[in-house]
Amino acid sequence: MSNYRTLKEEAYQANMQLPELGLVLFTFGNASAVDRKREVFAIKPSGVPYADLKVEDMVICDFEAKIIEGTLRPSSDTKTHAVLYKEWGTIGGIVHTHSTYGTAWAQALSDIPIFGTTHADHLVSDIPCTVPMKDEYIQGDYEHMTGYQIVDCLKERDLDYNEMEMILVGSHAPFTWGATAAKAVYNSAVCEEIAKMAYLTLQINPDIGPLKEALKKKHFERKHGKDSYYGQGN
Fold it and tell me: 183-218 in b/e burial notation, b at 16+ Cβ within 10 A?
């Protein structure tokens, strides 16, 4: 029996939620979960349809993207996940999808503007979109450099990965992360819904401006601030 059964189960459950939430089509996406103590993560195998996935199919890799356990080839995005786990020491899970609206914004090379309180319930700024990758990076270690494309974008914009848990990779698609794999899935669903709402908002009123600051602050802090009062607490 695998020594990583619990980790594989966490990654498996995260992956299986993606088609259930309408975030992936066919094999267009992947989720991973990390074990910080052992410095490994479990990730979906490459090109395997979700309907065929089993817990034991999850591939265990280290932070250099080397296979530690598994008979299948890991996701083609494994090196990107490895970079993020290595660079960001507090995240517990990562999700990558090609969800329709999030990917459309990424292909348009556009940040997702903060127009309303649904967005502000989760974030107080636009969801960033990275610049397109340099040709030398594309022709080099592409998936590895995708990880640094994400890391560098947040650094350049002075955004904290513990607060901004989603990003659009320019010309590509969304990545999200969180304290657990389940939270990364949640963030992926939120990112897609916000992307859809923003798109529809601009169809109704192309001249709409950003959400007013007072509403941003109110909606974020009532869920996340020190005096938050949303939900049932601990």
Answer: bbbbbbbbbbbbbbbbbeeeeeeeeeeebeeeebee
